[in-house]
Amino acid sequence: EIVMTQSPATLSVSPGERATLSCRASQSVGSNLAWYLQRPGQAPRLLIYGASTRATGIPARFSGSGSGTEFTLTISSLQSEDFAVYYCHQYNNWPLWTFGQGTKVEVK
Amino acid sequence: EVQLVESGGGLVQPGGSLRLSCAASGFPFSNYGMNWVRQAPGKGPQWLSYISSGSSATHYADSVKGRFTISRDNARSALFLQMNSLRAEDTAVYYCARASPNGYDYWGQGTLVTVSS
Predict the structure, then answer these.
(1) Strand A98-99 to strand B103-107: parallel, antiparallel, or no bridges (unpaired)?
(2) Are the beta carbons of B102 and A44 separated by less than 8 Å?
(3) How do the pLDDT tens digits run along chain A, 108 residues long?
(4) Alpha carbons A56 and B87: distance in angstroms, whole number
């Protein structure tokens, strides 16, 4: 099983500021890495796939980078609706796709 | 619009059974592999089971193998999960999720399963 490790667990950021989230895979997943946003009481929503491609309808302030084992999600200017939990997800090792434990982005 | 709507969750005693359903609409259901994914309180999502578009292939996570059974009815655009021998650690929100070449692109709203005496 590929273990996904996210850091930090909690990120305190002021509205309008930049947020940088990290994800590390225990072995290479190539570019088969996605990011999801989850608001309280809601299902995860796909933000980024292929490590850097925004899903349909996702604003340009969200960007992803990385390959292999190290990945980053950057939110350039946090809006109120962006304060949520973010998960990285590898889909390289089918069907045993795995998720990280999440990074909570909270208001500073 | 793609919609996935789960139902069938609830409170069940350890050792009991539940059958979850997922009603799909807005896309050609019979063309897609489908999954069940669960999320325990405060934890990241966990893949549980996959079924191919025509039901010829199924896969399970080790944690549920032999206890859970995935199935589908393409005529009704419905996905199912039969859960037997439930344990306290099975307590979670259960989601059906559509598989795409780029991860899980659509999720239902989830149904809560609580295993407790």
Answers:
(1) unpaired
(2) no
(3) 999 999 999 999 999 999 999 999 999 999 999 999 999 999 999 999 999 999 999 999 999 999 999 999 999 999 999 999 999 999 998 888 999 999 999 998
(4) 38
Contact criterion met (CB < 8 Å) for B47 and A98: yes
How far is it, in rounded angstroms, from Cα B13 to Cα B41?
18
Q: Which amino acid is at A34?
A: A
- B6, B32, B63, B107, best to mutate vs chain A, most A CBs in 10 Å: B107
B96 vs B104: CA distance, rounded Å? 10
Which percentage of chain B shows pLDDT scores above 90?
Answer: 95
Interface subset of B 66-85, CB within 8 angstroms of A: none
Tokens 């099983």 map to which residue? A1
- Strand, helix or coil at B49? strand
